[in-house]
TrEMBL record:
Name of the protein: Lnb N-terminal periplasmic domain-containing protein
Lineage of origin: Bacteria, Bacillati, Cyanobacteriota, Cyanophyceae, Oscillatoriophycideae
Domain Lnb N-terminal periplasmic: 137-295
Source organism of this protein record: Limnospira platensis NIES-46
Amino acid sequence: MNSPDGVIFMVIVAMMDFCYDRSNDVRFVRRAAYLKNRQIFRMKLLTLTSAIILLTPGLSSRVVDARPTLPDANCRCDVNDRFDPQAKMPQGIHQGKCINSCHQRSLRRLSAAEAAEYGIEPQAIAVANVSHQNQFWVAQILPNSVAEVIYQLENFPSPIPAAHTQLRFRFSPGSEVLLIPQIPGSHQSPVKLQDLIFSVEAVAVVGGNFDLVAGFFDNFAIAYRLVSLESRVQRMIIEDGHQVQQIQLNLTPAQKNQLLLNAITKSQQAGLTQMYNTLNRNCTTEVFRIIDQTIGYHSAPNSGSQEIFINAPTGEQISMLFANGILNQQAINQFLADSLDATQLQFLQEHIPTISPTALQRRGIKGMELPDLNYELQNTGGGGMIW
């Protein structure tokens, strides 16, 4: 594996993230080899990925969706919640088991009749399953109300340096998002929010826990969430003490609002029927796919082809390797089943595909680097003042 091709294959392994998916006919590592040599494989991954600054996986712009499953009342979190997905794991070793959707779930866009029941204005977008203060709410989002979109990177300590990617939508004064209690008969009052976070996350079965290596093998579903900034600050900064970087996105007013609409549409379409994969579908790959859809970005001018994702968007060179047949799935399968040569780490450090901020720059949408969310919280006195 000392050839240039072999080095490129190693890049696939050297870039990991923490937002999953996998598909039946795209297997990155042979399951039998994984079960036999799990600890060896884990140590090789840790060795390789220790050289990488940012981990956010994704291998191909093409992903294969899992087969949807029917709702199962046995998987219900709250009998009074009409928008409870009652979801089962669609494939993998946990197929048919209840997904833990009591805290993480995708959105459900309401029909006009459903929206009217919640008193939502006819011209507004109405979505259920928006997370705020450990509960689900129905959100009223007014048209053309997005004032700013901010790309966030939540950095956290790990044996593998890692980060979580998400989008912060800030709404114009006077056009804030209105949250209405989702459960009928609730005594809670509606809440107005200036910010919502779009976050794509792995979701385990009831009683399950996240595991990076398990993310290769259909162990997790994936949720496309909208969460209040308050709830994310509580978890990321107050509880976990993580640093959250912020980059303003240079988008037109139309693109800002279309980006939110595309995120909601993707969430509605996916539900909890798709699988997370450490390499192929994760928080960063899914955010960039929605960004690319919104701005019409392609890996090469006039090519019409999407950029290849390896943990994050990679740029034209890697995409051309796939297009020219130098890289392909069979070669990657074989490579990951073979021994990994850690002596090539220096090469990887010099030639690794670009991390997220550079991918934003390549798309022409990287704006000003804003103060970290931590600093923003401290300098507004906390206590909910930034939301």
